[in-house]
Design a protein that fits this description.
By secondary structure, the chain is mainly beta. It is built from no helices and 17 strands. A hairpin with a 5-residue loop joins strand 10 and strand 11.
């Protein structure tokens, strides 16, 4: 016989179902200048600043909370159970920091303490779908005063590029590109993409603009 568990809110909204694993907090940390590294393209003076998070798990989602910096998640990679999240820093003055939280599927309990209590659910195939030892990921409907929030981003920087046709002194048409790129910045509990001028052009044939998809995560007391 197969059993399951369902938890509903008082308003009837479904909060948990054993057949659908609940993402939960599995790791957290902070990036700062001590772990940042620079990459300098050939022929370029200066370079780009990056920082990365490495994690071993199942299907992680990373949420970040920038302070005095402008990061973008520019690359994610996976090798077996090992994941790497690489952030480019479009602004990283002295004292910047990037707090991060990784939410992942719960794993089978191991190294359990001899005392204490916990609630664990499994699905019909024996996979853990809930473990009360790990706080669940919470996505709020709105920003509430007194809470602390982070943002989960899709891969890629924000950018905007416009192209205008001009005529040179010989009467030849030439294209002129204006390009801006940037990352996410935080003011209080609000998050916005901030774009900065760059000479790195996409050389598009028409005006383009892109902002990564995102959602807010409540990380209060995590």
């Amino acid at each position: 016989m197969t059993f399951g568990a369902i938890i509903n809110h008082p308003d009837g909204a479904r909060q948990f179902d054993t057949e659908h694993p609940a993402l939960c907090l599995r790791a957290k940390g902070q990036l700062n200048q001590s772990v940042a590294y620079q990459q300098v393209p050939p022929g370029m003076v200066g370079g780009y600043w990056f920082a990365k998070v490495s994690y071993t798990g199942i299907a992680p989602v990373i949420a970040i909370r920038p302070t005095d910096c402008s990061p973008a998640l520019v690359n994610t990679s996976r090798n077996g159970d090992n994941f790497e999240f690489i952030f480019r820093l479009f602004r990283n003055p002295a004292g910047w920091k990037l707090d991060w939280w990784i939410f992942d599927l719960p794993a089978a309990p191991t190294n359990l303490p001899a005392t204490g209590h916990a609630l664990v659910f499994w699905d019909a195939e024996g996979n853990v779908t809930f473990d009360s030892r790990y706080p669940p990921m919470k996505m709020p409907k709105s920003i509430v005063a007194g809470k602390t929030y982070a943002i989960a981003l899709s891969t890629g920087a924000a950018y905007r590029e416009t192209v205008e046709m001009e005529v040179d002194t010989f009467g030849n048409p030439i294209a002129v590109w204006t390009t801006q790129v940037g990352g996410i910045e935080r003011t209080g509990e609000s998050f916005d993409f901030v774009l900065r001028d760059t000479f790195d052009h996409f050389y598009s044939t028409y005006d383009v603009e892109h902002a990564p998809n995102w959602f807010i995560v409540d990380v209060t007391n995590l």
